[in-house]
Every structure is written in structure tokens, then in C-alpha cells.
Amino acid sequence: MSQDLLYQVALPIIPQVGGGTARTLVKYFGSAEAVFSASKERLVKIPRIGEVLVKSILQSKTAALRQAEEVILRAEKEEVQLLPFTHPGYPERLRNVPDAPLLLYYKGNADLNALKVISIVGTRKSTEYGRMVTEQIVQGLVQHDVLVVSGLAFGIDILAHKAAMKAGLPTVGVMANSVETVYPTAHQRDAEKMLQHGGLLSEFPFGTKPDAPRFPARNRIIAGMADCTIVVESTSKGGSLISADIAHSYDREVMAVPGPITAETSQGCNQLIKSLKAVPYTKPKDLEELLNWDKALAPTFLPKPTAVPALDLTAFPEEEQRVLRILQQAGATHIDVLSRHTHFSMGQLSSVLFTLEMSGHIKALPGKLYGLL
After folding, report:
1. What domains sit in the chain, N to C, each tagged with a CATH number?
2. Angle 65-68-73 (CA atoms, 0-180°, nearest 5)?
3. pTM of the model
4. How many C-beta atoms surround the C-beta of residue 152 within 10 A?
């Protein structure tokens, strides 16, 4: 059992230590382990860490470590990935927000750092209009290989998950309880399907119930993971407005689907648009233009491949083979398309492209295209 993981799991278990506080402590002491060995005198000197919290840390740290050992063993048994803040699989977009969780519990196979991530949220009392629009939005995402994120709730959330699975897109449900229990239970079967092509994600340890205060906390993860949050339907006081407000505070894009002024389920969306907190979503091109996706060339619009000598790919490392195979099949290809189809991060892909370019096997072309020499 990794000692580093043990302390990172234990820290947020301590009562009153939330994600922001945990990050402050780790930043101040250098590691989660150092927090556990810190004296009272050092703890009280940390800004915004009061005596009540210091007392909680000192009194609860031994019990938290014992509980963390149990959590790690249970996670291994139930195939739940523990993603500390420093883990490469931790969502990079979420890591950059000020109140990101120190630890995530993840069950599934979707890449949480997919090239394009969209959150779709809305009212639990969705209408036929909401269902149609949700399916239209998801269909517009297919050509971009988007990861669809939502909250697994009744209404728009589950419609978004179902539409994504139907369209062959990965989809992740962010939960207000622990990952071993599906809430609401009516979505158990859908959640099981999501594990095969997506996943379930939570910041809450095993045994956590879906109490009301945890839903706004869940919403910040939904907003923080995505490039854009789309609100499909919402009443004037709907919970999805919290996700929109959080995304707006993170300086992330927010879109809202306008609806009839007489419809209660459109009041929240119309208000978001009126207050300039959201851009109207009326068609897929609205999202593509907002996020500059229309600037990245899709495979169907790439130049026709020119005849190139066949390469013996077996002579190359596996990472280089994946890139070369795509270039052989498609010809000159945009870097975003390469990243999507190789499943490499942009940093990893750039390194592979640089190596291949220096060895004289590929060349960089205008418009962020790459082709074989």
C-alpha cells in the first residue's frame, strides 16, 4: 500500500477538511503526509485554518488513517480507482479550479481528460421539448468524440447519459453519494451500462448517503470537468442553475437552451441568457463556434492522402506506430484529430510528433496538419 496514497485518502476523511482546505494544507506543508505530522503550533499559523479545524485534525488523524487503509483495500476489491489530486488520471480541467476535491473515487473506463468534455444538466421535471433538445445536442457532439458529463439525476441528466450511450459517446455520472450505491436506484441499470462506456465519479468516501448539501458540491465537479456546461431546461430556482453559476465563476463557457416564456421549465434558461451568464444554444454550430471547434478540421474535410511509400511500422515504438498508422490511412491530419484517435494527451502527442519529425518520417504542414514524408 502506497504511503503517499494512504495520507491523500485520509486527509479529506478528517471532519471539516473539505477540498479547498485540504489543498491549502498540502500546499503549505508540501504533502498530505506532512500535514499528519505537523504540530499544533504550525497548524494554527496557516491562514484561514482556525482552532476548531486544528483540533479536528489533531483528534481525528489516527482514526482517519485507519479508515483510509480500509478505503484503499475496499477500492481494490470493488475496482474503484482512487484519483488523488496529483494523479495523472485526475481531471486536469477540474484540477485548475480553486475548490477542486483532493481525492476522487472513479469507477469506469472513460478518459476524464478527453480532448473535449461537455456537461449537460437540467431540471428533473423535463418535458418532451427537453428530451428532444438533449438528444439533438448529443447528436451534434458525435463528430467531435465528446465526453458527456452529467449528474445521473431524473430528468435532463439521465436523458443526456442515455442519449450519449445511444450515440456511442462515453458518459460519466458525477454523484452526490459514494460510487458503490446508485442514486436514484431507478437508474441502476443505466449506471451499469455507463461503466462499460463511461463511468461513475464521486468525491465522497464509501458509505456516503446522498444528503441535500452534497448536491451543490457535486455540481462544482460537473462544472469544473467541462469545457462548457449546457443547461437544457430549468425552472427559475432549479438546481442546474447552481452548476451554471459555478461554471461561470470558473470562467468556463455556459450555454442555455431558450424556451417558451410561458413554460416554467424554461424560466431558468431564459434568465441565464437575459443576465448574460449563458450563450443561447439553438443548434450544434452555436457550441462549435463558442469553443472554436469549427476551426479544427474534421477527418471528412482533410486533404486527400497523397501516395506515400509503405512504412514497416514494426520498426517503430508502439506510440509512434499509432500516429503513423493514422497518417498512412488518412493522409495529412489535424493535430486535434490525431489526439482524439490516438487517445494521447496533447503533451504526449507533441513529443511523439517531434520525434517523428526529427527522424524525417513526418512533416508539419500549415493549419496544424501533419503528414508522412
Report:
1. 3-77 (1.10.150.20), 108-295 (3.40.50.450), 299-372 (1.10.10.10)
2. 135
3. 0.76
4. 25
